[in-house]
Amino acid sequence: MTVAAAGPVLPDHPALAPVRPLLEALGGSAWPAPHDWSRLAAARGIRNAQGLQISFVTPSEPAPSALDFERRIHARGEVETRPQCWHDAFHACAWLAFPHAKARINALHVADGADASPNRRSALRNFLTLIDEGGIIVASTRADLLELLRGFRWRELFADRRQAVCEAMDFVIFGHALYERALSMHYGATGKGILLEVGPNYFSLDLQGRLAFLDIRIEALISDPGFEPSTRLLQPVPIKGIPGWDAANEDPAYYDDVAQFRPGRRKAA
Asked: Which residues of the chain have pLDDT under 50?
């Protein structure tokens, strides 16, 4: 007798808050199949940059290259999705939570990779891959707090200015691989931070409103003709150091662990 695999169960952790409503919307007690993700995408009107409805499909054999994976999404709106796989489940969640940014990332991969080997990436595609896999958006109404983050001043930011961080900074995982790492919040897990200064009304929005706002901001950032992609634009963010994301970081001495909280770059980008 075949026993159905137990469905995905998320730990009760703030890092996973953006994806929790999506998994709950699927309902059921088993792992979602591609058609379950497609149903949710259709209900939300999720489309690629060409206006094609996004659907989630069984992976092809053999597995495509990274560029061919993106080309299939762009040409047919089909996202290959492995069953019972957290990595692919979170990738589907990213399409549902950040549809405009994901559609733009996909289109740029295809446009920039048209004359490139599937096994090599341009500076733009490398940047896009890093945020797509490991990105975390840091939105703040306080430019001074963002500067402390850019300066790798971990203890000053997260311990000395902790209350200000809790009131004026929001940390939202974007990358599906980083969501997967957040399941266990294992030691040293680090995101690629995209730092955004936002207006005071940002924190009056509910979770869905903030996600929609950030989705448009990321799309606009990477769509800007003057945008010059560089991995140095991505600020390392040790996610276990974010207030509320690990009970141990209530102790200021937590941030003295240089294996997690490195002193960072010595030269300006």
From this structure: 1-4, 119, 266-269
Residue-number span of the structural domain to which 181 is assigned: 129-256
What's residue 100's pLDDT?
98
Residues in the chain: 269
Instruction: Output the pLDDT for position 226.
Output: 87
Nearest residue to 210 (alpha-carbon basis) of 170, 242, 162: 170
Residue for token digits 């796989």? 85
Kindly state whether residues 83 and 171 are assigned to the same domain: no
Rounded Cα distance between 149 and 160, Å, is 13
Same domain, 139 and 225: yes
Q: How many domains does the chain have?
A: 2
Per-residue confidence (pLDDT) for residue 269, from 0 to 100: 39
Question: Is 80 inside any structural domain?
Answer: yes
What is the CB neighbour count within 10 angstroms for residue 45? 9
